[in-house]
Amino acid sequence: MLSPWPLCQLCWSTAEATTAAKHDIDGVISEGIKMNFPRGYIAEAKRILKAGKYDNDGALKPDGTVVTDPEVIAVLNALIELDIDATEKIGPGIDHWVVFSNRDLKLNRNSAGYRIMQVDGTGLIKFGYGDVLTPPKPRTFVQRALNDEAASLMVEFRTAKFNAGPVCCSKTGVLIEDFINSKAIHHEPSRAELHEAFLASEGLTFETVALVKQVPPRSGHLLADRALTARWVNYQRARLDGLRLVYADRFDR
Questions:
Q1: Cα gap 246→168, rounded to integer Å
Q2: Angle at the Cα of 154 (from 152 to 158), degrees rounded to 5?
Q3: Which is higher by pLDDT, 15 or 184?
Q4: HSE-CB for 48 with a 13 A CA cutoff
Q5: Kind plus residue range of the DSSP H or E element containing 243
């Protein structure tokens, strides 16, 4: 088993940045990051961080639980230094880490992760360690932005289905009793096909779409062109008949 201690001390010397992330003054991403970690580090880091979210009996730790496991702290402290927004997230310094659900009220869904409490009391600040261990490509940032811009439509679709009566998973036929365990997916056309078709209709590519960072405490990016956003929402609203509801565990994301 790998120990995170020497690896976090070798953070930048062993995690080679082959492509640097670049932002203009508006926070528009022009390139992604690719990190080459030491052999076996990614799998071990994921194992440590996943285990750190659960009690000894296998139950997920309550929101706000302070992280005390030195292995988990070591890995988190190492990875946050490699985050695109490390300076902003670390601020004057990290006082402690906490386990906290990444509850997204906009999407009404839940997943477990870690957040930062800064030494000056600022927090809780979300940290997506997965984006450091497996950095997304520029195309992924645009896809996520498109999804976030149309997130309210997904909630509307799910709400309408639940209001109409019992809801079953379109894949398994199992009854979905809790709204939060439902997920709207693009069946036909697929979400990727929708993204590509819309951008093509606008004469754009994933590489030419400008993004801006969301306003804290929200993370991620949005489309810089708000008129483009409105056209995208209308484009997807006209294609809601291709959506299906499936069962999704609260912590399977």
A1: 7
A2: 120
A3: 184
A4: 26
A5: strand 243-247
Give, rounded to a whole angstrom, the gap between the first and last alpha carbons of the chain: 26
Is residue 233 within 8 Å of residue 222, measured between CB atoms?
Answer: no
Could you tell me the pTM of the whole model? 0.57
- The string of pLDDT tens digits covering residues 177-234 is 989 889 898 888 888 899 999 999 999 999 999 999 888 667 778 999 999 999 999 9
* Domains of the chain, CATH where assigned: 4-23+33-133 (3.10.450.40), 138-247 (no CATH)
In Å, what is the CA distance from 174 to each residue of 118, 168, 182, 183? 44, 5, 11, 13
Name, in order, each residue with C-beta under 8 angstroms of 147's C-beta and a sequence gap of 6 or more.
191
**C-alpha–C-alpha distance, residues 13 and 8, integer Å:** 10
pLDDT of residue 245: 92
Q: What phi and psi values does residue 3 have, to the nearest 5 degrees?
A: -95, 130
In this structure, what token pair is assigned to residue 124?
A: 């809780």
The per-residue pLDDT for range 83-137, each reduced to its tens digit, is 877 888 888 899 999 999 876 544 444 578 999 999 998 888 888 888 888 877 7
Alpha helix stretches (DSSP H) within 108-150: 130-133, 138-149
Q: Which residues contact 126 (CB under 8 A, 6 or more apart)?
A: 102, 113, 115, 217, 219
Place of tokens 């069946």: 187
- Residue 93: HSE in the Cβ half-sphere, 13 Å Cα cutoff: 3
Q: What percent of the chain has pLDDT over 70?
A: 78
